[in-house]
Design a protein that fits this description.
disordered N terminus
Amino acid sequence: MKTRCYYLLFLAFLFWGKETSGQSLLKETRLDSLSVFFESGNAEVKNPDTLLKRINKLEQSGSGKIILIGYTDSVGSIESNRTLASKRLRSVAAILKSSHVKHYAIDSINKNEKRGKGKLNDNQFRRVDILIYKVEPDFVLNKPIDLNIQFRVASDYVLAGSYESMRKLLFIMKSDDSLKIKLNGHVCCEPDQLLSLNRAKRVKSFLVQNGIDEKRITCFGFSNTVKLVEETSPQNQAINRRVEAVFIK
């Protein structure tokens, strides 16, 4: 048991400094935001050439993302409006995919009749909003980064709110094929080297399932030997249940 403990402490010294970096993985800069309006019950973009011309005037960027949000008026059933919003989203996406930002990741959100507290007239909701972002890596090579991936207690089950961080990690790995990554798993409270390793492997599995070559990923488990905070509360314990990444080339 002592030999394993000394080994884990040695690994911790080898791969970490005293603190985990506060890096944010990605820097997002909004390039443009606009709305495309539709006729009632229609999913055809009225002036596709005008939309395409505006998009093609944007700053050229190596990587980026586009968020499309589709709405409808309140005429008709919710199901028919959900279908209509989907068609409008596809119509706009097709135009974007013929522009010079066609390589940007597109995330479509179908809000159809869901308007929150908006008080606009019905015709103002026959639209698709387009948000376009330039996305740049925001990290330093060879420095550990807390991925902000939270796990269920005593488990490698990833909590739902953590998938946004995992998608950011996937975006980075897809945007630069020369990057490799070390994934370092941790537990809180009691020693459990296997669980810490399985947490790192859980993140690796997500990346591999989404097209990342497993040869680019190495996993380590550090049990509870590298604490970020003292475990004086459930919140602090959750902070120590984590996976960190080190990007290397």
